[in-house]
Specification:
eight-stranded mixed β-sheet, binds adenosine-5'-diphosphate, binds magnesium ion, alpha/beta, Rossmann fold, 681 residues
């Protein structure tokens, strides 16, 4: 198909321009056709000069009154001036250093000018407008995402050639005809024509609808196929449910939600296909106990389990708490980047020999030297920090092991559908008994001293607390305007908290130091922990009841919620004080949401509304392909329809092997190529 040809087959695209296109990720003619306009200039509706809104880009139609006059202002600066009339008013036009454009303008020509009109009430003026002959220029014109050296006009010309090319040779339609008819979607070629060269605003809407649908449909096909990755056999087939043995050893009774989640996993593991399940639960809902329960049954039958966590500190905590939950009969190993070489070799040998039942670790787990004797279950914590591809890589160390994903990030319900499209979901919608909401206050920096006094009172009563500064995750450099944790630590321990046992925890510390600090805090030897967001996930100290967050406006709401989850984990009433000097309306609204609710899902929904999905995910990896036109939030209704349609299509043709579905199959592979290897082929 001609679409796969290089952009260099287009006239006027040589080595240089091809290199520019490559910067934009455009290599083939098809890529170019899918490089959609960012917005448009409407040259189709000319505005009379007298009605032009000053300062707003618009199109004026008129006749040239006089050919341009040249003014040499100084060396290297020449002006060209002429006047245009629209029949009623006159417009003064100035061009700078543009003899080429000026030469084309002749008296009595009818032209279109696109630019902004400036008017002093008597005289209207336009400076450096774009100019086109009226006969051919009255169109809606595309403006493209660009890179330096490329103009929208160049792209427009090339796109026109590309369209010509594919309309001659034909282009495969991706969407089945009956689907297009049912959803009232235009054809693919028509959509490209309309999105690049619309005749009306309706054209743009029609084209976008079709292209968004196509994109979401392909995305859903890919995700649904991942979900069925495994009509492959379930090799770690569970013979019996050992959950009773697990609960017998626990110091507490499982909540109903925990029991249901474990039961769902056990049923999955007794089924024909390997399990792919997400356990989603707000902070403190007890996900670790669920993971342990799921692992327990498999381990009892001789399988190994691996759990991957995003940070060393979290991996360490998980290893400790899992060992406690599972009891001494289960052999738990901890594998992180900071395990010394000799110890690591011993550990890896034990894993390979099947002498470790449960390995907890960081990314180190997916390194090549790690092999398992009988890996039956892969557990990932905080899934969104790993790409779908990383999860797959760990899984590849077993033969289609079961997969359990745990997420505390309260992904809004609307987004869960897509982000976790390849997983079944269990929600822990019940907190262990005795939890109290964390009282939350948002205050200005002027209340800082009072907040410290409040913290001191709690420390005096034997409780513990956190002061969190928005510094920097591991690897980032320190923004100078932020309260660096180290500086805050020094200030506090010598000032307001002199005489108290204050500790410091930040991402740049060595793992052993971090661990020692955390251990000291957990043991109560540190009363107040000054920290960056490294405590964000997992840390569990029930005696910690107060948290002060500095520069709270620098955090996303979802992240604040995670942080706040570090307190309120015991029997004592807990408090969170959000300090922010920002006076903005938006900031106040956001922080107010935190004060009003402790429901992680509601907070995530608000966050999404206030900041949009791009920000919601921030720089975190959610592992999904980049979308071109669709917006996961705005296009939710279409997404749901596309998901249903994708399910129907796969029911008929699970591997997309029918000849008419070949282009679709290729497109799915192409989209998912961009996220890495998936075994989608
Ligand atoms: P999450 O990872 O979901 O934030 P954790 O698994 O860390 O939560 O559990 C939070 C705390 O609650 C831990 O101290 C854990 O031992 C405790 N816990 C878990 N389940 C229960 C339960 N059913 N009853 C009482 N405490 C529980
Ligand atoms: Mg946890």
């Amino acid at each position: 198909m001609p679409g796969k040809a290089s952009v260099r087959t287009l006239k006027g695209v040589g080595e240089k321009r091809a290199a520019l296109y490559e910067k934009l990720g455009i290599c083939t003619v098809l890529d170019l056709l899918q490089h959609y306009p960012r917005t448009y200039e409407d040259w189709s509706k000319a505005v009379p000069v007298s009605l032009a809104t000053p300062g707003e880009p618009l199109c004026v139609r008129g006749w040239v009154v006089n050919a341009p006059t040249e003014y040499r202002v100084r060396k290297g600066m020449t002006l060209y001036r002429f006047r245009v009339t629209d029949g009623q008013a006159t417009l003064q036009v100035t061009l700078f250093n543009n003899p080429y454009a000026a030469a084309k303008i002749r008296r009595d020509d009818e032209i279109l000018l696109y630019g902004t009109v400036v008017s002093d009430g008597r005289r209207a003026e336009m400076t450096s407008p774009q100019i086109e002959p009226a006969a051919t220029g009255g169109r809606i014109r595309p403006l493209y995402p660009l890179t330096e050296g490329l103009t929208s006009r160049m792209v427009e010309t090339n796109v026109a050639q590309a369209l010509e090319l594919v309309s001659q040779c034909g282009v495969p339609e991706l969407l089945p005809a009956d689907l297009r008819q049912r959803e009232d979607l235009c054809g693919r070629l028509e959509a490209w024509q309309k999105i690049h060269f619309p005749q009306s605003e309706q054209d743009i809407l029609d084209a976008r609808r079709r292209l968004i649908y196509e994109e979401l449909f392909v995305l859903q096909l890919g995700l649904l196929r991942l979900k069925r990755r495994s009509r492959s056999q379930n090799r770690a087939l569970l013979a019996a449910d050992h959950t009773d043995g697990y609960t017998a050893g626990l110091p507490f009774a499982l909540t109903g939600a925990q029991r249901r989640a474990i039961a769902a996993c056990v049923a999955d593991m007794q089924g024909e296909r390997p399990m792919s399940r997400l356990v989603q639960g707000d902070v403190g809902s007890g996900k670790t106990a669920v993971a342990a329960g799921v692992a327990y049954s498999l381990i009892r039958e001789g399988w190994q389990a691996a759990m991957m966590a995003p940070t060393e500190i979290l991996a360490e905590q998980h290893a400790t708490s899992l060992q406690k939950l599972l009891g001494d009969d289960v052999r738990v190993g901890l594998l992180t980047g900071s395990v010394p070489a000799a110890a690591r070799r011993r550990l890896e040998a034990a894993i390979a020999a099947g002498e470790i039942d449960l390995v907890v670790g960081t990314h180190a787990l997916i390194s090549e030297s790690v092999t398992f004797a009988r890996l039956g279950l892969v557990i990932t914590d905080e899934q969104h920090r790993f790409g779908v591809a990383q999860r797959a890589r760990l899984a590849a160390k077993g033969q289609n092991p079961h997969m359990l994903v745990m997420s505390a990030t309260p992904i809004p319900r609307t987004l869960a559908l897509i982000v976790y499209g390849d997983l079944d979901v269990s929600v822990l919608d019940e907190l262990p008994p005795g939890r109290q909401p964390v009282e939350t206050y948002a205050v200005g920096g002027d209340k800082r001293e009072r907040a410290y006094g409040y913290v001191r009172r709690h420390l005096d009563e034997g409780r513990q607390g956190f002061i969190v500064c928005p510094l920097v995750e591991e690897g980032e450099t320190t923004p100078s305007d932020l309260n660096a944790a180290t500086a805050v630590y020094r200030e506090l321990s010598e000032g307001p908290f002199r005489g108290y046992r204050v500790g410091l925890l930040h991402g740049k510390m060595k793992a052993a130091e971090k661990e020692a600090t955390m251990a000291a805090f957990a043991a109560g030897n540190i009363q107040l922990l000054v920290s960056t967001t490294v405590i964000e996930v997992g840390v569990d100290v029930p005696n910690a009841v107060i948290m002060v967050v500095e520069n709270a406006d620098r955090f996303g709401l979802a992240q604040l919620h995670q942080l706040r989850g570090r307190v309120g984990r015991g029997v004592h009433r807990s408090t969170c004080i959000l300090i922010s000097d920002s006076r903005g309306e938006e900031t106040r609204r956001r922080l107010q949401v935190m004060c009003a609710t402790g429901d992680g899902f509601r907070i995530a929904d608000e966050d999404l509304k206030l900041r949009g999905p791009g920000d919601f995910f921030g720089n975190r990896q959610h592992g999904l392909p980049q979308l071109r036109v669709a917006d996961l939030l705005e296009d939710m209704p279409l997404l749901q329809r596309a998901q249903t349609a994708a399910g129907l299509l796969l029911a008929d043709d699970p591997d997309l092997t029918a000849p008419q579905n070949a282009p679709l199959r290729e497109e799915v592979a192409r989209l998912f190529d961009r996220v890495g290897e998936h075994g989608l082929n």
